[in-house]
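ok so heres the complex, two chains, lmk if somethin looks off
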Amino acid sequence: MSEIREVIINNDRLATDEYLVNMGPQHPSTHGVLRLLVRLEGEKVLNIQPHSGYIHSGIEKMCEAITYPQIIHLTDRMDYLSAHMNNEAVALCVENALQVEVPDRVKYIRTIMDELARLASHQLWWCVFGMDLGALTTFFYGLRDREHILDIFEETCGARMTVSYNTPGGLMFDIHPNFQKRVKDFIKYFRTKLPEYDKLLSGNVILKERTEGIGHLSLSDAIAYGVTGPSGRASGFSCDIRKHLPYSAYPFVKFNEILDLRCDTYARYEVRIKEMYESLNIIEQLIDNIPEGDYAVKMKGVLKLPEGEFYQRVETARGELGVFIVSDGKKNPYRVKFRSPGFSNLFALNKMTKGHKIADLVAIMSTLDLIIPDIDR
Amino acid sequence: MTNEELQSYLTGRFPEAELKLGAQYVEMTVTAENLHETALQLKGSEETAFDYVFCLTGVDYAENMGIIYHLESIKHRHSMVLKVRTADRVNPSIDTVSDVWITAKYHEREAYDLLGIHFNNHTDLRRLFLEDGWGFPLRKDYVDEIRIVER
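and the predicted structre for the whole thing:
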């Protein structure tokens, strides 16, 4: 007994001990194979070192050996929840390089698909975020609604997630005859379900306690670390490519860029919820006005980009995706670089979690909405 | 500033640099010695204020390595491309800009990992995706022994 007493009395040594804990690569809250080396003092996080590369697939190297239309199919596998936007980025980059103007019909369909993909991605994020914080019900609500979008994708694209619906010059095939009706039905349905998300989680006391004032990322840090997408906009970083460098049908629609100046985990949560409403608005403006016309322009059998460098920026569900192609005039690119949003967002994690509890680390990581293949590529 | 204004401004500001107006961006090529100083000025100067690096790419050209920085100013909403070439291709090295733009720290680690470009004064230059002892896969002379990519 006396020994234990002694230990308790001299407990300064116990209190100052630092732990080095390995979180991942198979931790459920990393949503993929990401390893975080966390330095802890008690429950307080002192430092985080992300170790990635567990699913590095060498997409950039593979691109050097294949043709441009083939690259599109690889990009599905990067950020699999924004597969359509990834496809579109490559397609736009190739079209700009070849100076091909796609028909308005293609632009409209692409934008509708983009927003459907964004909705599906945010729905999955929302249900997983609730689950990370211990609210399992959200998982069923989110996935129930996401099924409707995946069914629409399946009917038109033939795939639920790795859609590969774009091709340089347009789309692989025209939309399914049911497409417009199903999308309109979905909007009607989801307009009644989205307020449920707020009712279920947004005002919850436990959620607010665990997110408000947690994981502060200032505007200057967001810019310095290159944190884009909803995570960046929750720090007041106006980084929406759809607004600043509009592509496809975004110039034709009215929508708001959701900004929040609270910079914390709750702000990142709310920005995504509000973005879902904006996505519904965008789809509503377009779905009845899809112009008649071809779904693709006739392209050459073998696409050769002129010599030079081409860059295309698009807004995926996670932030800014950049496709950089260096061409030497052959049918394969000389070098392809994907600037993935998750990559830059991940490395701001250390800045945001410093001094918080380890349970907050899970909440903060969840609002960054990391997709690991997007980081590792 | 528009691209044309930016080009004329940069020509006056950096007379030694080589400037070109590309289809999308103003492209400025600087020598390896001037890189760090140029980066500091591009970020610090009130007129340019390039505070956001949205892409950093390493490219293996046949005779040397190139690094391409895509910069944007959030205040002025203009973008440009900064380019630099290393002197050597086998053991390339270049000054880091991670003290100017924090996000470059991780993009530089990626370039080091995949292309073997050494960034001087980088505080944490470790491999990012691959194991130590792996080659540099994005180099053009990389031998794909287990035929992962080329069949």
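quick notes: The CA atoms of residues 27 and 104 of chain B lie 19 Å apart. thats all i got rn
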